[in-house]
Amino acid sequence: MTAPYDVLLATLPDGTEREQSLPDLDRRPDPWESSMQATCECLSWRGALDNLERRHAEDALGETVYRDFPVRTRSAVITAHTLLERGVIDPDELAARMAAVRERLHRE
C-alpha cells in the first residue's frame, strides 16, 4: 500500500510550478468548484468537517504539503486529505473513485 496521501500528490503533473500570483478572482467558478463548495457546506452542516477547520487546514496544508497545486484546486485536495486523515475514505477507495470519475469524463 502506498503512503496515505500519495494518491493526492500523484494528481500533480510532473514539472508543475508553484503559482506566483493569485488567480483571477473575478472569474466565474467552474462547475466542479461550485459542486465542491456545496459538498463542503454539506459536510459542515452534518458535522463531518467544519468549514472553519477546513479553511485552517487549507491555509496550513496549502502553503506546505500542497503548495504546488493551483490555488483553485487546493480546497478539493485538502478536503480529500482531511477525509483520508479521519479514515472516512482510504487511499485505495479514493484512487478507485478518482479513476471512475476520469473514465466518465473521457466517455462524454
Automatic annotation (TrEMBL):
According to the UniProt entry, which residue ranges have a biased composition of type Basic and acidic residues? 15-31
Record-annotated Nitrile hydratase beta subunit-like N-terminal domain positions: 30-104
Where is coiled-coil annotated? none
Origin organism is Nocardia jiangsuensis
Name of this protein: ScnB
User: Origin, by domain of life?
Assistant: Bacteria
**Positions of region (Disordered):** 10-33
